[in-house]
Every structure is written in structure tokens, then in C-alpha cells.
Amino acid sequence: MPTQIKICGLKDEAGVDAASRAGATHIGLNLYEKSPRYVPLEQAAALRMRTPEQVKVVLLLVNAEPGYTAKALEIVKPDVVQFHGTETPEWLRVLKGATSVEIWKALGVKDAETLKNSARFVGAADLLLFDAPAQALPGGTGMRFDWSLLAEHRHELAWGLAGGLTPANVAEALRQTRAPMVDTSSGVESAPGIKDMDKIAQFCKAVRDHDHS
Ligand SMILES: O=C(O)c1ccccc1N[C@@H]1O[C@H](COP(=O)(O)O)[C@@H](O)[C@H]1O
Fold first, then answer.
1. Which residues are CB-contacts of 139 (< 8 A; sequence separation ≥ 6)?
2. More exposed terminus of the chain, fewer Cβ within 10 Å: N or C?
3. What's the Enzyme Commission number for this chain (predicted)?
């Protein structure tokens, strides 16, 4: 199975087209207002329409109100919603019962305990995204966590790797972790919030080269 690739934090058509052309399986649209990658709902809906059918659209939310979450799902109609805050398994279970959208939960990995505790999302999320712990922002910081923690972990849910992944380190990350999915945002930018089309292509190529090695 080819590694799934998510390019997150796209803000315009050029970025969506570049990620799709490069072979991303998922693109991420960020609705967190404090992020340099924030897009308003209407822009997210337009980019969703622009995205080719074979590429899944992931909507990123951080501790959003239930009313806003429902509105965002209604307007953008994403394939996946990625919760990147302190959303609880209980809340995600409620949402899961009310929508058919795929639910991902990002978790900041501090230590082995974080991974052990992630089992509480069984039945609440379809996939866990293991990221570096939150800094000033809950994600998109370019920070990595200790990938070796994953070596001992028995995954009970589908999962992906995020946090500081770049064209230069993604092959090594895949070798060490055997992640079935990789997610990058700041690692394919020239400045915060500015995607670099060459880096997007290089990232996807590095993943595909690893798949074929
Ligand atoms: O990208 C952001 O600005 C962001 C803001 C708030 C929550 C999550 C955010 N991004 C997600 O964080 C991870 C890792 O990002 P990076 O590759 O280290 O820059 C990724 O899932 C992004 O989608």
C-alpha cells in the first residue's frame, strides 16, 4: 500500500494544484484563525471544489464550537475533519454518531504515556495523527517528537505521522516509524503560510522513492 501523503495548510488554487499534481492523497485546509495558514470558510469551500476527486480534503479545526463545526462541515463538505486541539473522545463520539465524515484526532506526543493513553480514542476517531506537542500554536510548528517512541507502540487505530517533516527527513522518518501516512505543513514552505511548490513536489517524490526502495 503506498504511503498516504497529506499536504496541509493550503490557502490557494496554486497550492492545491501543486499538491494534487505531486501525488498527495490528502490536502489540508486550516480553519484555525490564529494560524498563518488560516483560510476563511468560503475560501475553504472554493478550494474543496477545486480539488480533484482522487484527493481527499481534510478540514483542520482547533477546539471549535459545535455550531461552527457543523457549519464548516455543511459549507465545505470535506472528506475528513482533523481535530488538532484538546477535543475529548466523548465529544468526538457524539460527532461520529451525527456525521459520516471521517474523523482524525491529532495528539502531541510527549512520551510513551501519550501513546498508551491514545487508546481512549478507539471508537471516537478513525485515525490518530501523532504530532509534536503544542507550542505557542497547537500545530504547524515544524517541531519533531522522538520517533523512537513509536517503535514500542501497538497501534489500535489507523495512524499517521506529523511534526517537522520535510523533503529532507521524510524518508528517514518512514524508515524509523513505518508510518502509513505522513503529514506536513511548514516543512514545504518558504515562510510561515507560504507554500513552496518545489518543496511540495520534493516531499511527495521522497515518499514515493521510499515506497519503491
Ligand atoms: O499548520 C498550522 O498552522 C496548524 C495550526 C494549528 C493546528 C495544527 C496546525 N498544523 C498541523 O500541524 C501538524 C504539523 O505541522 P508541521 O509539519 O510541523 O508544520 C500538521 O498536521 C499540520 O496539519
1. 60, 62, 84, 106, 131, 162, 163, 185
2. N
3. 5.3.1.24
